[in-house]
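Internal tracking record. Fields below are filled automatically when a chain is submitted to the structure queue. Please do not edit lines marked as system-generated. If the sequence contains nonstandard residues, flag them in the REMARKS field before resubmitting.
Queue: standard
Priority: normal
Entity type: single polypeptide chain
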Amino acid sequence: MFVVLSLLSQAMAAPISHYDPAIHDLYQYDATVTKADPATPVAYNTSAIPDGYDFTGVNVRDRRFNNRSPHVSSSTDINDYNSGYVAIVMVSPQHALVSAHYIDAVPSQMNAVEFMADDGHKVVLEGVSSDIVGPDLKLITFSEPLPEDAGIAVYSKFIDYATLPVSGMVFGVDSQGRMLPRRAVHYWEPYNEEWSFVHTPFGPITDHLGVIFSGDSGTPLFIADYTGQNYFLGTAYDSDRKIGPEVVANINALTALSGYSVEQVDYPYAPVDFDLDGRVTSADLSLLLGAWGTSDETADVNGDGVVDGGDFGVFLGYW
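SYSTEM-GENERATED OUTPUT FOLLOWS
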């Protein structure tokens, strides 16, 4: 089961200072993109996809030279362009979320929406309507649901942003099919193209950060929990595309017509994630050892009244 929170970022392309296709590209392509010809995804770059992540519920978009970032000078590097294709993300077998202002400007982009399963086979869905569910958020209804064996992720649960782990790693998938790591923190990260999206959604442009400019309106964000379950987060760039109870109710009023529903949930933490950062690491081990021999209820994860080797065994199971 996969889960979802909100949808799309401000229009975005993200020149990466140390862009490496082997690391950042979500897909393998049928050709090298040129100014004259786009490149089409034909398979996943499986060696680069982080463990536990599933991006198959995001529509597959050709890589192409469209709008160039005003923050860069190169006119030949695809890393400095967006593709001009909007992100469309499945939230039920027959429905998807999309940026309203973009799909209203280019409604033809929902006519034949293509998704690709892990094994490389593609599924094309025909959008027949789009309805407002938030200030800048629309729900697309497709003519038919996904086949049961399609192998395409459906993100039908939404996470409350307030419950996200501070410093938890998230991954965005931009319009050029690049995976961009970020952290849910309150400050700018200096390495690995990571930056804040919770309380500092937009800040100084430096050479390791993505930049925002007009042209694609959609970089979905994802986070995986300790079980490997994926959560679709969206971003905090634009509150018009965040999802709350009212938006969930609006979505359900439409999806219920086809027998589907979505819901908002809290982010689930591992029982031994004592510092609530979304990861089980040596920091949590230090907290466990610091409570050794006591009856600390938080560290006594097996509930036997004392923090000891039994709790350490439970801890190792989540490492």
